[in-house]
Amino acid sequence: MQTVVGAAIIRDGRVLAARRTAPPEAAGRWEFPGGKVEPGEDPDDALVREISEELGLTVAVTRWLDPTVPISAAYELRVAVCTAGAGKPVPTEHDRVTWLGIDELDDVDWLEPDLPFLADVREALLDGEPLEGGNVGGAVRIGATVRRPTGPWTPAAHALLHHLARTGLRGVPRVHGIDERGREILDFMPGEVIDVDSELLSPARLHDLAAWTREFHEATAGFDHPGPWRMFPVGHTDRIGHNDLGPYNVAFDGDQVSGVFDWDMAGPTTVAMELAYQAWIAVPLFREIPPEVAAERLTALAEGYGGVTAREVLDNVDQRVSAAADGVRAMIESGDPGGAGLAAVGEPERTLRALAGMRERRPQIEEILGRREASSSTRTTPASWRGGWSVTATRRRSPANGWPARTTTRTTRGQS
């Protein structure tokens, strides 16, 4: 009996199906593309060859599915899960190809020999494609969605996302429920995500991230939820924040924030704590960048948010990062699944070493900021650079708001 091999080619959480044109009894019906294994040919090699000839794609065999299914007295069918390189499939022996998501597998008329493989293909699609970045782990992409592990904090995080959806805040994923594996289903947020360990956000992107953070805080004004939240204690709190607004959790379209993800650490915080950790990751103060650069980028972040100074942001970094280290340690000790991933990359010791380095650099950063404050004490930053926040009055912030008690500028949203 001669073997026919088919490829369940998976890309971005979808599988490729091809529509037959012949013989007449198979015309118009769908199959996994492939072809015959030549005598003495390895099945993997045969499948790679057939897909190249039929579709112009280069594939790699991941694993073969069970069972082997008879097609006729002369042929049997085997199907393998495959990955494909970049490129658009161009059919030469079929009249049409299409990518099907999990919920679309039953929407086409499959040939009978292919039907027994659909259950395993469905499971392969549910496995998804692991998303790069992050140390907590478990997030995969399936088509236009992301699936993530849930926990006791999930209802609170979903309530926050539903609230933000009602406000129309840009860049927030919608919640689509829980899948059959108990994972949350969220929108996949397209865009460019930088490598926080080797790249820097451009000044324009840093500014827009801070401006988006201000918009987010405005959108959450008055929102409250009893939890439980996954976020660890950071002292006095007065609002719900994201708590991890670093570049690894933000996608950009050009210079604009296009998506913000990983909302599992959302929870009670303050503006001071939110911006302090953003400075730690996005300036980024955890890296040994020159003090002049750190001061410049701290200023850009503060101006992007509006109504705070770079020194105020810097003043809270030590406290916030120390709280993060304590929180990670507590996660590890409590058996939180995310703690294992953090421990595997050397946390919280890695963060504490970086914090010690920042403490050594901090006096130089403060000196530079002090000189800038002195030279600009009689000037006002243009509203266009500050994201539309224009000066209207001054007041003293109290420690209860998360900032040291000092005279600062209060701002309101401009109409331009």
Q: Characteristics of this structure?
A:
416 residues; 5-stranded antiparallel β-sheet; 8-stranded mixed β-sheet; alpha+beta; 10 helices; elongated
Q: Can you offer a commentary on this structure?
A:
The structure is a single chain. By secondary structure, the chain is α+β, with helices and mostly antiparallel strands. It contains 10 helices and 19 strands. The strands form 5 sheets. Strands 1, 2, 3, 4, 5, 6, 7 and 8 form an 8-stranded mixed β-sheet that branches. A 5-stranded antiparallel β-sheet has the order 9-10-11-13-12, with helices on both faces. The radius of gyration is 27 Å and the shape is elongated. The model is unreliable at 378-416 (pLDDT under 50).
Distance between the termini: 75 Å
Mean pLDDT: 89
Number of strands: 19
Total count of helical runs of at least 4 residues:
10
Which parts are unreliable, with pLDDT below 50 for 5 consecutive residues or more?
378-416
Beta-strand portion reads 15-25%
Helix content: 25-40%
Overall 3D shape? elongated
Helix/strand structural class = alpha+beta
What radius of gyration results from the CA coordinates?
Answer: 27 Å
Please summarize the sheet with the most strands: 8 strands, mixed
SSE string, helix = H, strand = E? EEEEHEEEEHEEEHEEHEEEEHHHHHHEE
